Amino acid sequence: MNCFFDSSALVKRYVAETGRKTVNALVEKTRVGAVSRLAHIEVFAALHRRRMGMPVSDAEFAAGIAAFREDWKNFTVVEMSGEVLGQVDRVIESHRLRGADGIHLATALWLRKQALADLVLVAADRELLTAARKEGFDVIDPQECSLAEVERMVADR
Taking residues 114-139, what's their average pLDDT? Predict the structure, then answer.
């Protein structure tokens, strides 16, 4: 299975919250795990914001950052090129998305067109998931998808 992860889903890999096991299973089982360059900025910022607002030990924080940096080397990173960003206006107008969600959806659309027709979009953002469905994507919300469902999806693809 090939997956595109937006930041709202990817951050779950590095913090203890609902959907973490599902994201971990997807990252480990996908053939291609793709992300927008924007995800690096958003996940890194989210980890730092959580550090400021939640009781996290220095060791836990450092482990999360180290895991993120190591994982990043293995993702297929799609740059925010003019070709990708050229679709952002349309998806924002069509789906009334926030800017970052528009970039993630435009990136997934570009990637699907280029090479991965069977791409599954993984997000924990209802508006983005709704827009992605309307654009013809199969989607996974890690907050609602069980590990058994992930196993079935992987086996079916």
Answer: 94
Tell me the C-alpha to C-alpha distance, in Å, between residue 77 and each of 15, 50, 58, 90.
Answer: 21, 24, 28, 22
The candidate with the shortest Cα–Cα distance to 4, out of 114, 90, 152, 151, is: 114
Answer yes or no: are the C-beta atoms of 123 and 22 closer than 8 Å: no
pLDDT tens, residue by residue, 53-102: 777 788 888 999 999 999 999 999 999 999 999 999 999 999 999 999 99
Quote the tokens at residue 79. 């740059």
Contacts of 129 (CB under 8 A, 6+ apart): 121, 123, 139, 141
Element (H, E) at 5: strand 2-5
Q: Report pLDDT for 96.
A: 97
The pair of structure tokens assigned to 29 is 């089982």
Tokens 């291609």, residue located:
32
Q: What is the mean pLDDT of the chain?
A: 92
Which CATH topology does 2-156 take? Rossmann fold (3.40.50)
